[in-house]
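re: the backbone from monday

yeah here it is again, tokenized this time
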């Protein structure tokens, strides 16, 4: 029995992107919340809460992008020209953010203020760029055969602006719940307040994006049982019902966790909300890898190439997962005012 290599690689890349969103999402969210901190000391605690993990979190972006290039070259060749501008903007912002992370530690008064602003700005711009990428992907990419056939700014629409706003709110929520988990004293209280504000924004924007998505492409609406002119079709909607239920459950867990002053459950709830949104996205266009005209099988590399790469991934992926889990376990405690863990 032969392995379904294109499907295996589609799952690997989808998982890598999900892990990137969940993990790098909270440290980008911490950067987005930087301007709202009370003092430089609070910002030091915020930055030190992500110091052991932030660069490792970006590993999953490399795996997702590199895997797309190697395993699905036709999809990479179509998607990248369509989204070059926001992708380059994202990469530049991530570079600025990384430099600011290191330089802020050693900066003096003016230098530290500059790198603080650079870290916050880089986090916000990277998140907005990712929102444009996501929105441009969902609304569809114009193909001419297997090549991109649209315009350079097709990704810039009112819909993608709405998605970008939703992602900023979502990452801020992940960042706030992470700080609830990792911080103490005044910063802990501030993080709870930020989380309440962010969860209200996320709930509203998630509903708005979900409704808008049904109008962006008829195929998505049809899959969810809202085909134009046919009315609501329960038989199409019911198989997808667990997806919104997970999202609603995540919001409930998040709200109860905040109300009961839990330290860890709000972050679990926020992660469930993101998982629901990600699953809903996949349900809207799978098996297309370039919405909505190229499937992952059409875009896949040759089986011998996929098999060879799979051997490497089978060796390296457990190492990466094990190292990531070990780092999170090692730095599992609260971040104290002197930037130490206990």
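seq for it, each position gets an aa:
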């Amino acid at each position: 029995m032969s392995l379904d290599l294109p499907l295996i690689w589609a799952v690997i890349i989808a998982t890598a992107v999900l892990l990137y969103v969940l993990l790098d999402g909270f440290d980008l969210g911490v950067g987005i919340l930087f301007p709202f901190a009370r003092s430089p000391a609070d910002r030091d605690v915020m930055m030190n809460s992500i110091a052991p993990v932030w660069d490792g979190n970006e590993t999953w972006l490399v795996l997702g992008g590199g895997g797309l290039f190697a395993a699905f070259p036709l999809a990479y060749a179509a998607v990248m020209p369509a989204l070059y501008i926001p992708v380059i903007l994202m990469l530049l912002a991530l570079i600025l953010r990384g430099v600011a992370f290191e330089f802020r530690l050693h900066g003096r008064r003016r230098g530290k203020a500059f790198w603080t602003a650079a870290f916050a700005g880089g986090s916000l711009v990277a998140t907005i760029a990712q929102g444009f990428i996501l929105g441009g992907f969902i609304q569809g990419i114009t193909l001419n055969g297997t090549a991109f056939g649209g315009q350079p700014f097709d990704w810039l629409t009112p819909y993608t602006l709405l998605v970008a706003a939703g992602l900023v709110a979502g990452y801020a929520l992940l960042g706030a719940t992470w700080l609830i988990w990792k911080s103490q004293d005044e910063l802990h209280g501030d993080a709870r307040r930020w989380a309440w504000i962010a969860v209200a924004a996320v709930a509203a924007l998630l509903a708005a994006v979900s409704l808008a998505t049904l109008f962006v492409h008829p195929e998505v609406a049809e899959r969810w049982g809202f085909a134009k002119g046919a009315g609501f079709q329960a038989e199409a909607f019911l198989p997808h019902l667990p997806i919104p239920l997970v999202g609603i459950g995540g919001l409930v867990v998040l709200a109860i966790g905040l109300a009961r002053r839990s330290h860890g459950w709000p972050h679990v709830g926020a992660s469930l909300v993101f998982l629901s949104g990600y699953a809903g996205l996949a349900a809207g266009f799978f098996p297309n890898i370039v919405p909505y005209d190229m499937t992952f099988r059409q875009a896949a590399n040759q089986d011998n190439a996929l098999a060879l790469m799979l051997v490497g991934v089978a060796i390296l992926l457990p190492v990466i997962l094990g190292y990531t889990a070990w780092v999170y376990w090692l730095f599992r405690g609260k971040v104290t005012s002197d930037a130490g863990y206990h």
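The longest helix spans residues 73-106. Strands lie at 143-144, 147-148, 288-290, 294-295.
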